[in-house]
Amino acid sequence: MAAGRKKSSIDLNNLKAGGFIKERGKDLFTVRLRVPGGRMAVTRLKKIAEVAEKFGGEFVHLSVRQSIELININFHDFDTVVAELGEGEQKVASCGARVRVPVACGGCEYNPNGLVDTQRSAMEVDRDLFGIETGHHKFKVGFSGCPFDCPKAAINDVGFVGAIWPELDRDECISCGLCAKSCAEGAIAMDPENKPVFSPDRCTYCGDCVKVCPTEAWKTVKKGYTVRIGGKWGRHPLIGTLYATFLPEEKVVEFIAAVLAWYKEKAEGLGRTRLGDVIIREGSASLLDHLRRTFPDNVVGKTILPQVVDNRVG
Amino acid sequence: MSNTIDLRGVCCPTNFVKAKLALEMIDAGEVVEFLLDDGEPVKNVPRSLKDEGHKLLNLKETDGFYILTMEKVE
After folding, report:
1. Which residue of B has its CA nearest to A176?
2. Stretch A47-70: mean pLDDT, rounded?
3. Which residues 9-68 of B have a C-beta within 8 angstroms of A?
4. How many domains does chain B have?
5. CATH no. for residue B59?
6. pTM, rounded to two decimals
7. b/e A106-134 (16+ beta carbons within 10 angstroms → b)
8. How big is the A-B interface in CB pairs under 8 Å?
9. Nearest-CB residue to A112 (from B46, B51, B56)
10. CA contacts within 13 A on the Cβ side of A290
């Protein structure tokens, strides 16, 4: 070591989960913050703005997965940035072959379309599974509150979409026809007696009939998540396919943990390979059988392989 | 019926906001008719009114538009 030089000291524990990403230019890094479900308390936002102003560049970047990224952070400042963000309040996110911060839509507290509490699910997954090393590749989870699916669940390794199953109490129906009119899928038609007839095959579980029904004649009899597995985007996109229906919200963490266990085992020796590509190698039946053991009421009978999107066709 | 509010030709969410403004001038318990276009308006407006606590009574198709009958709830 050259005489008179002092080695910088940095707490390497802060770097364990990743989230510090090298930028162009000497000494500069992006610090990706952990914002599960994209929900950011206004007080935290103010704190982040203070830290960004003090240590970062002129702007922050909103990542495509709902994170705030501090730009142009000098690596000598890592420890101070982590400390000033307040370790209990605003943690740094992850990168690399780990379970990433889950994304989610606004959920059901204020959004009238939301059928399930995606925010709570995202917080639970963040609390229990964030940063776990997969041993193979990144692992992304996303939550949509309804079949509008704004967060694009099927391009996550495991994607969840809120769903309800409706049932009609004919005696309470006043034959107003609002349900038939509201159903975007044509799953409800009025019969000659002016009562709704339900075609279950067409239903996409959006709950619009329940929401519009003036007399609560349409009732929610099942509620949970539709689960799609094996999706990703990037250079070689795959669309995840259906593995479970009406998975209860409280079983989300356990379900993802079961998928992770299968992934860890089956991808052994394959190198940097995403879940969807492992399913294509192993066949979907293997993962279905594995999940059915723990979730017999929710796992579907059969599914198809992740669907390749050939983005080289012009 | 005197309480007829014509929301035809008004798109979402302006039609719903217009409905809310019209309802401010009507007493609770009174019955109102809204005239709604087919498509998004007839799908969205009734649900939003129900969500605000009003009582939907009927929906009727007439000459390519819809008449929604509703009782105002305070």
Report:
1. B58
2. 96
3. 42-43, 46-48, 50-51, 55-59, 66
4. 1
5. 3.30.110.40
6. 0.91
7. bbbeeeebbbbbbbbbbbbbbeebbbbeb
8. 34
9. B51
10. 20
Q: How many residues appear in chain B?
A: 74
A46 contact partners, CB below 8 Å, separation of at least 6 = none
C-alpha distances in angstroms, A301 versus A164, A223, A241?
Answer: 19, 19, 13
pLDDT tens string B23-74: 999 999 999 999 999 989 998 999 999 999 999 999 998 998 999 999 999 8
Residue B55 has its nearest CB partner, among A208, A212, A214, at A214
Report A:79-108 residues touching B (Cβ under 8 A): none
Looking at the DSSP bridge assignments, the partners of residue A219 are A167
Q: Which residues of A touch B57 (CB under 8 A)?
A: 174, 176, 214
Picking from A133, A135, A155, the residue whose alpha carbon sits closest to that of residue A234 is: A155
List of residues 6+ apart from A228 with CB closer than 8 A: A153, A154, A156, A158, A159, A160, A161, A239, A240, A241, A242, A243
pLDDT above 90 as % of chain A: 85
Element (H, E) at A220: strand A218-229
Whether the Cβ atoms of residue A48 and residue A68 lie closer than 8 Å to each other: yes
Q: Which tokens hold the place of A207?
A: 């709950």
- Chain A residue at shortest CA distance from B45: A212
Could you list the residue range(s) of the whole structural domain that residue B27 is in?
4-71
Predicted confidence (pLDDT) at residue A86 exceeds the cutoff of 90: no
Domains of chain A, each with CATH number or no CATH: 15-85 (3.30.70.3340), 103-164+223-308 (3.30.413.10)
* B69 residue type, one letter: T
Q: Which residues of B are catalytic?
A: 12
pLDDT tens digit string along A8-39? 777 777 776 678 889 998 999 999 999 999 99
